[in-house]
Amino acid sequence: MSATEPQTNTLEAKSPFELRVNQGVNVSDSAIKKALESGDIGFLHSFTTGSTVDGPGVRVVAWTSGCQFRCLYCHNPDTWYLSNGLPVPLERAIDELKKYRHGLKAMFGGFTLSGGEPLMQDRFAVRLFTAAKQLGIHTALDTNGFLGARLSDDELEQIDLVLLDIKAWDPERHRQLVGKEIGPVLDFARRLSARKRPIWQRFVLVPDLTDDAADIAELAKFSASLGTVKRVDVLPFHQMGRFKWKKLGLEYELDDVQPPTNELVQRVCEQFRAEGLKAY
Ligand code: SF4
User: For ligand 1, is residue 64 a contact (CB within 6 Å)?
Assistant: First the structure.
């Protein structure tokens, strides 16, 4: 099959917790390369509607496939590989947005591109955001920030809000947690700040893994120094993705880890608030 043939898989999912694999496995390497360069086609795990946690108001969310991180707590490891995504022509993705544009405006919502890591498919992301803006839809990018340098300053203007996940502060902890360096993430955060782009920061709280008080205190100081972080969402770790690790035959190190207690969540929120940030 070529990447441009009509697809029969459904794009819409009830939630990103549906396990989806091999949707694009028959797409040739040359077609993938062309798609990545042009943005004519995106590889998507799914579209979901009605989210109230991925940006302001009610959101339509497109979940991209492909991620260069390997977070130990990832709840969607089926999005790690591009080939697990459904190849979706840009025009089809835009048509999906058109279906919802009036409802999204009425509910003060918009469109969020999440993943996986959307900037693995930066040309598709930019073109889809640009189309959304032309439709008058609020746009949000949910990213780990590592590939932020792929976006030009003008392209950043197509993104109304960046949901920036910063996984840890200590460089070694960050590397052990996700398998990549923290430097490019912080560079992107500083650049968003310099360009006055609004940020909702996200921080996944995992007991005994990301809850070090000194680490979080330093991260909170950095976040406050940016001046454009509108809120910090402290996301309690959960085990909803564990079944995916098992089904994919991946070694899951967090089998015995419990979600954080309310007390721990509150302590971490207070650490961000102590630096003058809104934290939830
Ligand atoms: S950045 Fe997100 S999708 Fe990528 S491994 Fe981490 S949690 Fe999973």
Answer: no
